[in-house]
Amino acid sequence: MAKKKFVVGCFDDEAVLFPAVKKVRTAGYKIHDVYTPFAVHGLDHAMGLRETSLHTAGFIYGITGTTTALSCISWIFTKDWPLNIGGKPHFALPAWVPITFELTVLFAAVGMVLTFCYLCQLAPFVKKHHFHARATDDLFVMVIECTDKTNTEDLKGFLASNGAIETDIQIAEEGWWLGHYDKDEMRFEAKQTVAA
Amino acid sequence: MASIRTQFEIPGKMKTWSLGLIGVGLVALIFGLVTKGFSSDEHEQVHFWGTLMYNTIFWTLVCNASMFFICVTTLAMGGWQQSFRRIPEAISTLVPIFGSITFAVLLYVVLSDKHHIYHWLDTEAVAKDPILTGKSGFLNAKFFILWTTLTIGFWSFLGWRMRQLSNEADQAPMDAETGAKFIFRNTVRAALFTVWFALTVGSTVPWLWMMSIDAHWYSTMYSWYTFASSFVSGMSLIALWLIYMKNKGYMELTNQEHLHDVGKFMFAFSIFWTYLWFSQYMLIWYANIPEETVYFKHRVQGPYKGIFFLNLIINFLCPLLILMKRAAKRNYTLVTFMAVLIIFGHWIDFYQMVMGSLSKEHVTLGWLDFGILAFFVGMMIFFVGRALASKPLIPKYHPFLKESVIHQV
After folding, report:
1. From A51, A87, A94, residue closest to B285, measured CB to CB
2. In degrees, to the nearest 5, what angle opens at C-alpha A173 toward C-alphas A168 and A178?
3. Burial of A50 (0-12, 13-18, 19+ CB in 10 A)
4. How high is the ipTM of this complex?
5. Do A97 and B408 touch (CB under 8 A)?
6. Which chain A residues contact residue B326 at CB under 8 A?
7. pLDDT tens digit sequence for A157-166
């Protein structure tokens, strides 16, 4: 639960966003994240994100499913409770393959969904700071993490000169937290009340 | 576009290799014909004609899979394959050539009354056999010849029409309206080919050409299984040519992104093949009815045991474990290795599908098989090289070409 200072720049065009991301990175700023209304092809490369390890996790979950199924079924049918099913051998591998397959898929799928949610910090009842409400609608929101030495006004100017239509400074929770939004600055609600 | 090399020049080495392989193949073919094909021993004859049959059928289907690939990607409005579509097109020009060879071999087998290959040709035996009598509407020499002619004829014709249309993309820039019309005509021709493909490779032809060797036995999975086998080898062949052309400095617009997608096809259809392999096997294993298990008896427990399970390792385990990673599908060396392995694996698969039924007591794999394989590989290299050289390598006015250039996985 550590609050940090962020500089937020909003862009309304993909074509402007890409060069801006590049310039911000070469200028040495640390991009916290870029929030976009839809998946933008190649943005992960532009931001210099490393390859996701989700598929490695998926492979491990799958292997776990395979092992669980095979060891479980083989123990039950050969040691624990051998049954004569249509005169087939107790160790009837072909008959187990569909179940092994299903369990592999189930483990891999469920495991990957949960891992994905964890990596994206998504869960029921868990809250996360929203940098801009229009990030889910029509704005590309670039969030830059500040250090003690960051000159925020300079950075805001830099973003604006690279095509940001809106910039501001926010002090916000970096990760997720369990509880209510009251710990967060309710930026948008506050604005709405003022407008009303 | 000026800097891009669109004209393929056949390297001397390629010519030497292809002619060398054809030469080796011809020697094996003639030697086999003399010692086995015209031998008075029925076993030797069956060995020779069976070997010719599975090789011709395999290579025809593999080359035809290229045209199928173009047609389905066209129907799916795919753009990513445009930068290298001339490679599958060139491979599909082999269909008339290999198709005629297949036709000649099958015609000889049927007309010379080779009862030991197609048991159902023996009219006396069929009359006494209620099962074969029931099938005689489908399994008879006349229908066989008619359907084989139509099949190979239409594959060649519809594929040729598709390639002719592709030539228009070389001539002049298209405006939006001509482009839309061009795409529509592509869709129509691709649909015609795909429907005919479904009626033949997807159902009747593998039953007729290969499954009818075990005339009593049947499996509804068989055609899909054959299709999966030929399609995954076809994709591997496309990948091999793609990598070869890249190595020679052509195909500048094609890169790892395209290779990745071709690799995905190789991976996915290897799994699909296994799915069908297993479905066919498990149902028969489970029911355990003698007239059904007869197909697997000598393959699983007899002399073909080794090949049968080697097949599963090469065609399932290796692609699954090696091609699973993203980095592997983008690695030219690994994809080359896997493509060769997959083509070899499915060639062995066709071998056991045909020869496993014709020569139940012993495995016949030997110089004749590899000789004839060399013959077909040589022919393939020779004719595909010629077809590639006869056309620009990039359909530069194709409306979807840009999609292919900016393709990203």
Report:
1. A94
2. 140
3. exposed
4. 0.80
5. no
6. 51, 55
7. 999 999 999 9
**Residue B230 within any structural domain of the chain:** yes
CA B200 to chain centre: 13
The Cα A19–Cα A195 span in angstroms is: 34
How do the domains of chain A map onto residue ranges?
A: 3-51+126-195, 54-119
Contacts with B408 from chain A: Cβ below 8 Å: 41-42
Residue B2 lies in a domain: no
Q: Which residue of B has its CA nearest to A101?
A: B275
Chain B neighbors of A95, CB-CB under 8 A = 282, 286
Chain A contacts to B (CB-CB under 8 A): 41-42, 51, 55, 59, 86-88, 94-95, 97-98
Give the fold, CATH level 3, of A3-51+126-195.
Alpha-Beta Plaits (3.30.70)
Residues in A touching B324 (Cβ below 8 Å) = 59
The answer to whether the beta carbons of residues B393 and B7 sit under 8 Å apart is yes
| Residues B10-25 pLDDT 10s | 999 999 999 999 999 9
Dist CA A70 CA A78 (whole Å):
12
A to B CB pairs, distance under 8 Å: 19
Please indicate, yes or no, if residue B300 is contained in any of the structural domains.
yes
Structural domain containing residue B263? 12-405
Nearest alpha carbon to residue B258 among B87, B96, B45, B53: B87
pTM to 2 decimals? Answer: 0.89
CA dist B261 and B238 (Å) reads 12
Count of structural domains, chain B: 1
Q: Residue B50: name the closest of B125, B146, B114 by CA.
A: B114
Give the tens place of pLDDT for each residue, B304-334. 999 999 999 999 999 999 999 989 999 999 9
Task: Name the minimum distance, in Å, from the CA of B376 to any CA of chain A.
Answer: 36
Interface with A, mutate which of B271, B275, B282, B283 (most A CBs under 10 A) = B282
